[in-house]
Design goal:
heterodimer, A: 213 residues, B: 202 residues, 7 helices, 82% helix, 0% strand, globular
Chain lengths: 213, 202
Amino acid sequence: MAAIILVLYTIIAGFLMPVPALPILHESIRNLYFHVTMWFSMVIILAVSVVHGVKFLNKGQRYNDIVSSEAANIGILLGILGTTTGSLWANNTWGAWWVNDAKLNGAAISLLFYFAYLILRSAIPDEDKRGRVSAIYNIFAFTMMLVFIGVLPRMTDSLHPGNGGNPGFGGYDLDGTMKLIFYPAIIGWTLLSVWILSIRVGYKVLIEKIQNN
Amino acid sequence: MRNKYALGGIFLYVIATVYTSYLSFKNIIHPATWNALFWIIMLFASINAISKSFVQDSNGRQLYYYTILKPQMVILSKMVYNAILMIFMSLLCFAFYSIFINYLVQNLPIFLLSLFLGSVGFSSILTMVSAIAAKTNGNFSMMAILSFPMLIPFLITLIKVSKLAVDGIDNSICYPYLLVLILINIVVVGLSYILFPYLWQD
């Protein structure tokens, strides 16, 4: 419920509230509420996935494996949405749908990592083995994602705001109204994905119960 | 040395690939092309060399290792062995490539350093991925699918730093890239060391 309110607030306020008027960016600055916040909640939900993967490695509970894989699925969905919104923004601001940028390459590679994770999961028939092997790959994927999105773009030049000498969005936010939407938006998307996660996990658990009976 | 033919096969693969590129390109003058082609040859040679490091062990041998060794020792020793193999292979590849295609390197120490880090990185990434891929009943396409996301950024950084070395750029500009390579190496080796015992228990 709170998730729906927060996301609705993000969408309505994100489109209607005043934003600082800037050259080049203009109204496209509103994408901050969608693109950036989606990446944030993607990292959060993928962290959930990794934590449950580690738990599964230690204890071997089926439940942890289900949560881990479903969280990864939702993370992939958010990643695709984040890439799409970013691409729309890039077309307006940088003049191309895709540019050769350190952070974009990192994002593409990370998505590739998680697609490989899905294929790996589908390739192993035995449940216990599948959980263990995919949890190990999951930990690799998450660590590498942090390196590729978080560390590498800061070491080389990136067109992204906040990297390579470009000012971050904090510098544009003149009167703090953007923060009023930005932080609730992160919480909203995260809660929404946690809600989807709980439904999907409950569904999977029920199916397993029926199959076991 | 258990299987000499495998070692010979890898060296022959490298020489044959370099010679094929010599026949198709004759002489490459453009540094970027020279550099990229070299690393692509290296990439596929290393995938060929390392991808079988777990699949080739029979179940009996794995059980034998399992009883006498700690799993960490198994993965580390495989990585060290593959790293040494890759270093020899990269030096051989570099020598043949220089003879047949062209020699354009202006900052040799940095280039050799990137060659060394690249060999160690390829071997550690591919050893761990081959251990994971071996769990999916030795599917070869699995190896490529699982390793490419890890290899591509590593390879791109390698190509960047060795391009700088080829152009004879000053050392100080190369250091951040070398640092990235070392960082990825440490992350991969550390994670493999921690996670391999879980993969091994069957």
